[in-house]
Amino acid sequence: MNTIYKYKITVDDYQTISMPIGTKVLSVQVQHGIPQIRALCNQNNLYEERKFRLSGTGHTIHENNLNFIGTFQLNNGGLVFHLFEILENK
Predict the structure, then answer these.
(1) Helices (H) and strands (E) in the chain, counts
(2) DSSP 3-state assignment of 34?
(3) What does the pLDDT average to over 46-71?
(4) What are phi and psi of 85, to 5 degrees?
(5) pLDDT value at residue 88
(6) For residue 90, is pLDDT > 60?
(7) Measuring CA to CA, which residue among 84, 89, 90 is closest to residue 25?
(8) pLDDT of residue 75
(9) Between 89 and 77, where is the model more confident?
(10) Residue 46, by phi and psi: left (phi above 0), alpha (psi -120 to 50) or beta?
(11) Is residue 29 within 8 Å of residue 9, measured between CB atoms?
């Protein structure tokens, strides 16, 4: 059965999050000052590691294999970040 879950993310350039296989990442939003990924997943599936790249506006991004998830703001708009999932090279 599919359910929408949230996964907290940190304000770091790179992070890995364990999610059920087949999870569809829907968005990134801030809740109570904490950035979180919202994802549609089946908690009964086996888990896999998913890699993400966070970049601030104006920062250089060297990777090409990225899927844009969304943009969020912290500190009343003083900090703007853009979240991407790093896709595996096939």
Answers:
(1) 0, 7
(2) strand
(3) 96
(4) -95, 135
(5) 84
(6) no
(7) 84
(8) 93
(9) 77
(10) beta
(11) no
